[in-house]
Amino acid sequence: MPSVSEYRAAATLLEKPSAFAVIGHIRPDADAIGSVTAVVQILEKLGKTAQGWIGQPETFAPNLTTIPGGEKVLVSTEFPLADAYIVCDCGSIDRTGAFAEDLAVTDAPVLLIDHHDSNPGFGTVNLLDFAAESTTTIVWQWLEYLDVDLDQPLAQSLYSGLVTDTGSFRWGRPLMHDMAAQLLTFGINTREIAADLIDNTSIEGLRMVGQALAAIEVRQVGRLKLAVLHAKNEAVQGLETSEVESLVDFVRGVHGADVGAVFKGYHPNWYAVSLRAITDVNVSALATKMGGGGHLRAAGYTTAGSFADNLAALEAEIEKL
């Protein structure tokens, strides 16, 4: 958990710069867009100029634009010019995508806000809380050190990251309920938020889920059992990212398995792999070995090659555990 001095250092970093670029991770989720838009709103309340960015060429899932300010977040492969940078929900610098190389060498101050326990800390100032349920949780706690009042749009941005990263409050500390209780006093519509960010899906999305679930496997790998879901490239074409990512929820509780892995073929011979711990397995360490990272119980990585080759590579690492 960040110390008082770290929160104050983060607040001090905001004082001199006038123009900020606020960066979330590529293939953003609701915590990335929620934290980016929350920080943009905070900066604007402080009289600063701020713009949210995602370092990728393709647009992100339209349902994320229901988060206040989400429709204003820009995607680009060109590094934005700014007096200072605030990076949200990026477990490593490569998660900033096209911005990573320039961000690594910029002379401008960089504030990093994140909760992934594989994060090495790459900012001038780092607000890292590996126990935090979401990056928006850290932003919410940071408000105590800023001359900024909560309002409904800011509360909705913060809540969006919290409700999604906790699986609708299925895991987390008592603090998450305290945070939600405060945010609810600002009149946010929790039913509508859940519908927009969690529940809505298309017929095509349901068919994709059905195909993937029909082929689920539980494989014995060393001393552990691995539940595997495979969303083929042809099956995910034309679907929203949120629909594909919903597959992760199905491997969290597979009876008898220790680890769940979802291979999502977003491009031909290219996978985003989500790992979930079902029993007491550190999937963050496993994902790090595969070139990614994340949390103790929820992590991921990206990889090129065939499904068979990538599954074999993952199993080879699991056998070492």
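That was protein one. Protein two is written in the same sequence-then-structure order:
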Amino acid sequence: MMSDDAWGLAGGDEIAPGLTAVKDLGGGTVYEAWLAFDDRLHAPVVVKVLRPGHVDDPVSRVGLDREVALLARLAHPGLTRVFSYDDEGARPYFVLEHVDGPNLSRLVSRHGAVPEHQLLPLALELASVLHYLHGEGVVHLDVKPSNVIMGAPAQLVDLSVALDVDEAAALDHAVGSDEYMAPEQCAPGERGTVGPAADVWGLGATLFRAAAGFRAFDREPRWSQLHDEPKPLPGFVHRGAADLIRRCLDADPAQRPTPRDVAVELEPMIAGLPSARLSGFTLRR
């Protein structure tokens, strides 16, 4: 099990010199993630540490270096910053900016559907990040609620499977998280070429979960998006947002809006909201 491949750290333990573990944030198959205190920065940070079983795996080591390099060259308000890394110590790791806030998945699980005065600015902020990434030639490939931190602005995290556009187009195997993978991510080649439009599908699936409080597609059978239509959105969802989400979830990549299209459509919807809101902006002036 994933939890068996762990360093056995606890709060107060030293992750590496100058980095003290505070709280286990979970992580994934390849990394442990810890809220930690960085003595050099004198601030809380997030540390992603390769799990013991992946330290000697060349694919995992390349993945660590790749994610660090990507984060180091990208700069956007909706992307967390990388502060430092060490790929030569006993526990290879990198240090990320800590954004205070729950992830979207946890928020929806605890409180249900996100109200429109939060949903619409969230959608705009995520579209902004994707617009930037695609402009830099990067496809995220894992847009999902657990990778959205509800800060101000929202943060899209985890570039561990992100690829350059040309690399994404050459994929011949599935990459991503099952319920949030565009059809072409599930079956590259057979259902289309993987590219920026796949992130728009992931955005649509993420916003569907936020707007409705449940997923657009069932978890079983696996990859039901290959043959099923998304579930209907509840009637309480903002009509314009519902239409936009449905178009993001089009099975044909060519029919999906671009992130800029999404942002442009959201602007008048946000303008129609009550003025007392904490976030949201326009990409055009």
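The helical segments are 58-73, 104-111, 116-135, 165-169, 183-186, 196-212, 239-248, 259-271. Keep this in mind for the problem set.
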